[in-house]
Amino acid sequence: MMRRQTSQRGVSLIEAIVALGVMAFGMLALVGVQTTLRGSGDLARQRTEAMRIAQETMENYRAYSAMAGTPGEIDFSEIATVARAAVAVAGTALDGRLNTTFYSTVVAPAVANSAAMKPVAVTVDWTDRNGAFQAVELRSLIAGVPPELPGSLALPPSRDPNFAAPRGRHRSVPITAFALPDSQLSVFKPPQGTGGTVAWVFNNLTGLVTNLCTVDASSTSASLANATFRDNLASCTSTTAQLLSGYVRFANGHPTVAEAESPNGGTLNLTVVLALTSTGHPSPGTSCFDDSTDNAMEAATRREVVYNCLIFSNTARTWSGRLRIAPQDFSNGADWDITATPGTSNYKVCRYTPLSTNAGTNNIDHPLDYTTNGSLAGAGLTNQNFLVISASYNCPTETPAADDPFNSNTLLHQDGSPTYDNP
């Protein structure tokens, strides 16, 4: 008798138990990952809040309002060690969500109030959800500087010619002059084009030029600032002279106030002529240099011409006269002229000044004519700047503000007419 075999279907009990075991291990691993992620996120929130507390504490110290003795405000003398204490985070978005208490400790060794720097360390610690100790620390040096001094940076620059400029020298000494070692002197080779051999020696205290030197054409102010040059000043010509210096800028198109603040036109070939009306000056009276070029292509890439003039001092060390811009021909381009008649190559010269008229009582304000009465004895003049514009336009003007560091006001200085070309 034949038996018919039947196929078995379904899953045996052992197979089901094995599958459940594998799944259980997977679920346990997933729960572990979730626990780790939650702990890491919790720790990240706590660390972020701790860093905020440390930064806030440090910045509060940095924002001290006085050096000492100001009731109700943080002053420099109060930046001191603070014992570990709990920090409240109530009122923040994380209030009640951090599951811990933060403690802040400040370490600031006692130093004199006159000390330049005070070391400060801010530590914020806490215990995480696993009971482990955690902490962040910020270290810094806080400068002991009276708060009113940084505020003085917002004040307009002093217009006193005797006010000391950077590097502790008289403001008449050019910033690009280099100090001669072990002396109160600085050497300056004025920009004078290729082949220039003239260098001036300034007294750092008075701002006066004391020596005229002939130097190698390849030398620079920096290369001359050495003991050898200093020790050979006897070979230079002794003199007493005052500096007159500035820049000539060029407007591109219509000269708006914004354009006057930062002109972007290419330069023109020129020279500066200082005609004195005062008397008693040793010959030759004046000496002027500039760095303009007669190459039209090179001039188009430049944005300014620097000029420096010396006035050889008379007995009173005062002077009067007028400085004028004189057009020079290009060796490879179109010539230009100063005139009130509009034209492609016709220009006017404006001067930067805080004045609203041509009359001025102080030479430092850059009047049309420098006067003896407006001349401070022995003082030089810097930043006597000009703007060259197309003859088709008028000089840009604005009402000068006492707190405006960018004076864009200009007045007509030359337009080819006798009034403006004859001192």
Question: Percent of residues in helical segments?
Answer: 10-25%
Oligomer: single chain
Sum up the overall morphology in one term: elongated
**What is the SS-derived class?**
alpha+beta
How would a textbook summarize the main sheet? 11 strands, mixed
Strand content: 25-35%
* Number of beta strands: 19
Task: Please work out how many helical segments DSSP would assign.
Answer: 7
How many structural domains can be distinguished in the coordinates?
2
| Intertermini distance | 144 Å
What low-confidence regions span 5 or more consecutive residues with pLDDT below 50?
none
Report Rg.
Answer: 37 Å
Average of pLDDT? 85
Order of helices and strands: HEEEEHEEEEEEHHEHEEHEEEEEEH
Briefly, what is this?
The chain has 423 residues and is of the alpha+beta class. It has seven helices and 19 strands.
